[in-house]
Design brief:
Blueprint: H1 2-24, E1 63-64, E2 74-81, H2 88-92, H3 100-108, E3 113-117, H4 119-124, H5 126-133, E4 138-142, H6 165-179, E5 187-188, H7 197-204, E6 209-211, E7 215-216, H8 225-235, E8 240-245, H9 254-267, E9 271-272, H10 275-280
Parallel strand pairs: 1-6, 2-3, 2-8, 2-9, 3-4, 5-6, 7-8
Helix pairs in contact: 1-6, 3-9, 8-9
The structure holds zinc ion.
Length: 286
């Protein structure tokens, strides 16, 4: 029900945001030199309902980790746009929680990708959020409002209390819509990937599918791009979901990793898809 509400809001917001979105499109991520930015078709109609998995017992959100292993060599690269509520002053002081060069590289290499965006990131970088949200090469999922953990003991992250979990995810959807992401996906990635039954029930109220991964790139705080590349290439199997980050300050090697990994995986016969495609190929999806 809430998702339907979000979609209705999305429809009205899209109209309001259209002018601003067109003006901003490509401005933040224009290639530094060389080929001009490719013309992207303006989204016209509302996309079909994204595939989701059925809820578990007690309305718990279903958890998706990877697509089918037997339907060909597809792989989904996912990029988490992390930002916590208290990092605003650091951004104001010049720290980069975005990564425009990475997005430009994904566009240049024509790699479809799924971005799990925190609401706080969308508030900080609305032009980039809007540009990603209106580009059919990408889909934008929800990564909470401010990257607080949904369980205790999750990589030292502050914790969101149980009674605020549902509203935190809603707050993130509101921020994504406000930034001009017209159709955020009903996919939620838990900060740190940490969840339990209580967390699944809380986000299940929103009808989302929780999206985990089966390949950890190890790009968070990495300084050796080759090691990250190796970890991705060693881990990817048909239907894999790879977790990476689009946050320069916390994942400085990721753009280089993408430049190395993409041609190599293509050489091995892999095709890049978005998470929605893998969910749509999963038996029992809706
Ligand atoms: Zn994250």
């Amino acid at each position: 029900m809430v998702i339907r509400l979000v979609r209705r809001i999305a429809g009205t917001t899209a109209v309001c945001a259209l002018g601003a979105a067109l003006a901003a499109c490509g401005s933040a991520q224009a290639p530094k030199s060389g080929s001009p930015a490719p013309a992207r078709p303006a989204p016209t109609t509302k996309p079909a309902k994204p595939p989701t998995l059925p809820a578990g017992p007690g309305g718990a959100a279903p958890v998706f980790m990877n697509g089918p292993r037997t339907l060909g060599r597809t792989v989904a690269l996912t990029f988490d746009a992390d930002m916590t509520a208290d990092q605003g002053p650091r951004a104001a002081a010049g720290e980069h929680f975005d990564n425009p060069a990475l997005i430009a590289t994904l566009r240049r290499l024509k790699v479809p990708a799924t971005v799990f965006m925190t609401g706080r990131w969308a508030d900080q970088y609305p032009d980039q959020a809007r540009s990603l949200g209106r580009d059919p090469q990408f889909e934008v999922g929800n990564h909470s409002y401010s990257h607080y953990a949904f369980t205790g003991d999750c990589y030292g992250l502050p914790t969101v209390s149980a009674d605020r979990m549902t509203s935190d995810v809603q707050r993130a959807y509101t921020a994504l819509l406000r930034a001009g992401v017209p159709h955020p996906m009903p996919y939620f990635r838990f900060p740190g990937g940490c969840y339990d039954r209580q967390a699944l029930r809380a986000v299940g109220r929103l009808g989302v599918t929780a999206v985990q991964w089966d390949v950890v790139s190890g790009d968070a705080f990495a300084t050796d791009a080759d090691a990250v590349t190796k970890q991705v290439l060693d881990g990817v199997k048909p239907g894999s979901v790879v977790v990476m980050h689009c946050t320069r300050s916390a994942a400085p090697t990721t753009e280089q990793v993408v430049r190395d990994v993409v041609p190599e995986l293509r050489k091995r016969g892999f095709r890049f898809v978005k998470v929605s495609q893998l969910i749509g190929e999963t038996p029992g999806h809706r």
